[in-house]
Design brief:
Blueprint (H helix, E strand, L loop, with lengths): L21 E3 L5 H4 L2 H7 L4 E4 L10 H4 L1 H4 L10 E2 L8 E5 L8 E7 L2 E7 L2 E2 L2 E2 L9 H12 L6 E4 L5 E2 H7 L6
Parallel strand pairs: 1-2, 2-3, 6-9
Antiparallel strand pairs: 4-5, 5-6, 7-8, 9-10
Length: 177
């Protein structure tokens, strides 16, 4: 599970996994962690992982942005540092800018390269930097880092359509700053 924003009970039973090992969070904004408690409760053996830089977002409504947009959200889930997660198929790439602890998750399985970019990189754009922990200069550094990755990587942003690094190199104005 990546970025648990929708409660498990809103899914059809046939769409729920039989087993869940990991709940991975790309950044701590409330729209990406809204249902973390529900998923953690439904799958108590699944470890929850978020970056050290965004760990406080689980308990601080100012850090997770909920105090600006909606009710003040606090979560009871205990999480571990995603930087300490050691899986052969997963590379955690630190991409601060949208938030202090934003990460992208590069997964390589069966010859495919998929990257979940949270709100760092969108098809044709990038995430905002004006919320607490955001930093425009760091965002541009993170985008530069991503632009050097394999162009065949398919990206799955936290919002909007999927794309590829190659397509973003050609069409994303933020890759050319």
């Amino acid at each position: 599970m990546i970025d648990p924003s929708v409660e498990p009970d809103r899914l059809k039973e046939s769409d729920l996994p039989d087993k869940l090992d990991y709940i991975l969070i790309t950044h701590g904004h409330f729209d990406h962690i809204n249902a973390v408690d529900e998923w953690s409760f439904a799958y108590p053996d699944a470890g929850v992982y978020i970056s050290e830089g965004d760990m406080e977002a689980l308990t601080n409504p100012d850090s997770n942005g909920s105090s600006v947009f909606t009710d003040r959200c606090k979560y009871s889930t205990v999480a571990s540092s995603i930087e300490d997660l050691n899986l052969d198929f997963l590379k955690v790439i630190s991409t601060p800018g949208h938030s202090k602890g934003s990460v992208c998750l590069l997964i390589e399985l069966e010859g495919q390269k998929l990257m979940f970019t949270g709100d760092t990189l969108f098809a044709g754009s990038c995430g905002r930097t004006d919320l607490k922990g955001g930093n425009e200069a760091k965002m541009l550094q993170s985008l530069k880092l991503l632009s050097k990755l394999d162009p065949d990587i398919t990206i799955y942003p936290g919002h909007g359509p999927s794309s590829t690094i190659e397509n973003e190199l050609k069409n994303n104005p933020f890759f050319n700053l």
